[in-house]
Write a structure and sequence with these properties.
This protein is an alpha/beta fold. It folds into three domains: 151 residues, NAD(P)-binding Rossmann-like Domain (Rossmann fold, 3-Layer(aba) Sandwich), CATH 3.40.50; 164 residues, Dihydrodipicolinate Reductase, domain 2 (2-Layer Sandwich); 84 residues, Alpha-Beta Plaits (2-Layer Sandwich). Helices cover 36% and strands 28% of the residues. The protein contains 14 helices and 18 strands. Strands 7, 8, 9, 10, 11, 12, 13, 14, 15, 16, 17 and 18 form a twelve-stranded mixed β-sheet that branches. α5 runs parallel beside α10 and α13 runs antiparallel to α14. The longest helix is centred in the C-terminal third of the chain and has 21 residues. The chain is elongated, with a radius of gyration of 24 Å. The structure holds nicotinamide-adenine-dinucleotide, L-homoserine (HSE) and sodium ion. L-homoserine binds next to α7.
Length: 436
């Protein structure tokens, strides 16, 4: 039709995202053909159950349970099944046959990205995964292409919508952690296994991908330091607000110099304080945002929907159109870039400032004792506030803000505080991020 050649597109999986990709491919066929210069011909959709109910009405003859057969002969394979092993095998098979692959599978890319990128490079195929990080938000392509001539120094991301939703409810509506979690669950925001969201595993997968691309290196997912939001309390949220901060679950990728002079990368996920003036503080509900700091470009922010079937389908189709254009023009796909080969530095090498909440004995000399413990470990207090004196009788609550300190020094300080006779409890230690 219209003299366009056909490019054979095989779709693996027809769930929330896959069904929307199929619908858009069919509905927008003519326009996509005009944009690409070839017709994106959906040859089939691999499903587990031919008769399962779908979000979208799609021609039944497209469905097949034979994913392996479908992949054979495809020009572009779009993997939207999720899971690791079957997806990995099918993608490797597709790449080895020279097909381009588009996937939204963050777990797979975080675990096997380098292997898949190598397989793609061997045959000059394109492996694209814009939808794997922050759903609809263009962030992979900007990092890989638009910022390819710059030096990125730091990436701070709110890349998990469900935990952002939970923390935002606690902050804005005063919900308890349990209530906020229940609402998030009712709205279907959480993964089938909510631990993946709540304990930061999903964000860690995205941190791996962001750190690897931003710093042209390989950051294994196991090397990402990870804390989730299950320990965040209403008292911490309240204390943060009082001090002009908000608590966000951040995925951070940063170029750092270690104490011994080694340059490396830190990749970490934890709930952190950020100033209410920081652009990331305005990311509410289930939205995602990625804040990028680059030497020449300065500060950039990418904001939008990090999940949702049709929203995520937008990113998938963007990759699909890009892969299809390559087929029309010819030439190899853009290979992954890991030439910098940087080491991943442990959390102890990170320097940031901290907010420590303590319950102490309300006695003369206590402040001096605590100041002495901080000084002994090279941690300098920027502020000390006695917020309430209404805990157990004879105790006071202290909130200490520190100057920028090394995590290792801070950890030793917290251990010393816990062991001190004047401290009855260390109730909170939070890092403050987003500053200079
Ligand atoms: N839903 C989102 O908002 C979102 C956002 C970003 C990324 N992703 C990623 O996109 C991918 C798809 O997510 P989803 O939300 O559409 O999942 P989903 O569970 O709704 O759909 C996956 C579908 O694939 C099918 N499937 C699984 N294994 C199969 C196999 N071996 N053969 C054929 N079909 C198989 C399942 O039956 C299911 O229908 C995942 O990797 C997910 O992490 C999803
Ligand atoms: N569970 C993820 C889905 C998108 O990857 C989230 O909450 O953001
Ligand atoms: Na994205």
């Amino acid at each position: 039709m219209n003299g366009y050649r056909d490019l054979r597109v095989a779709l693996l999986g027809c769930g929330s995202v896959g069904a929307q990709v199929a619908r858009l491919l069919l509905e927008q066929g003519d326009e996509l053909a005009a944009r690409v210069g070839a017709r994106l011909h959906l040859t089939g959709i691999a499903v587990r159950d031919l008769d399962a109910p779908r979000d979208v009405d799609l021609p039944r003859e497209l469905f097949t349970t034979d994913a392996e057969q479908l992949v054979l002969g495809a020009d572009i394979v779009v993997e939207l099944m999720g899971g690791i092993e079957t997806a990995r095998e099918l993608i490797l098979r597709a790449l080895e046959s020279g097909a381009d692959v588009v996937t939204a599978n963050k777990a797979l890319i975080a675990e096997h990205g380098p292997e898949l990128a190598d397989a793609a490079e061997q045959v000059g195929a394109q492996l694209s995964y814009e939808a794997a990080v922050a759903g609809a938000i263009p962030i992979i392509r900007p990092l890989r292409e638009s910022l390819a001539g710059d030096h990125i120094t730091r990436v701070l991301g709110i890349v998990n919508g469900s935990t952002n939703y939970i923390l935002d409810r606690m902050d804005r509506f005063g919900d308890s952690a349990e209530d906020a979690m229940r609402v998030a669950s009712e709205l279907g925001y959480l993964e089938a296994d909510p631990t993946l969201d709540v304990e930061g595993y999903d964000a860690a997968q995205k941190a791996t991908i962001l750190a690897s691309i931003a710093f042209h290196t390989v950051v294994p997912v196991d090397a990402v330091y990870r804390e989730g939001i299950s320990g965040v309390t209403s008292a911490q949220i309240e204390a943060a607000r009082h001090a002009g901060y908000v608590i966000k679950l951040l995925a951070i990728a940063e170029r750092l110099t270690a104490a011994d002079g080694t340059t490396g990368v830190s990749a970490r996920v934890y709930p952190a304080l950020i100033s209410r003036d920081h652009p990331l503080a305005a990311v509410h509900g289930g939205k995602n945002a990625v804040f990028v700091e680059a030497e020449a470009a300065g500060e950039l922010m990418f904001y939008g929907a990090g999940a949702g079937g049709v929203e995520t389908a937008s990113a998938v189709l963007g990759d699909l159109v890009s892969a299809a254009r390559r087929h029309v023009i010819g030439g190899p796909g853009i290979p992954g870039s890991s030439h910098a080969d940087l080491c991943v530095l442990p959390i102890g090498e990170v320097s940031t400032s901290y907010q420590i909440m303590l319950e102490v004995r309300d006695l003369p000399g206590v402040l001096a004792e605590i100041a002495g413990l901080l000084a002994e470990h090279g941690v300098s207090a920027a502020s000390v506030e006695q917020t309430v004196a209404d805990g157990a009788e004879g105790t006071a609550t202290l909130v200490i803000g520190t100057h920028i300190s090394r995590e290792a020094d801070l950890a030793a300080t917290v251990d010393a505080l816990r062991g001190s006779a004047v401290v009855t409890a260390v109730t909170s230690v939070l890092r403050l991020e987003g500053g200079a």
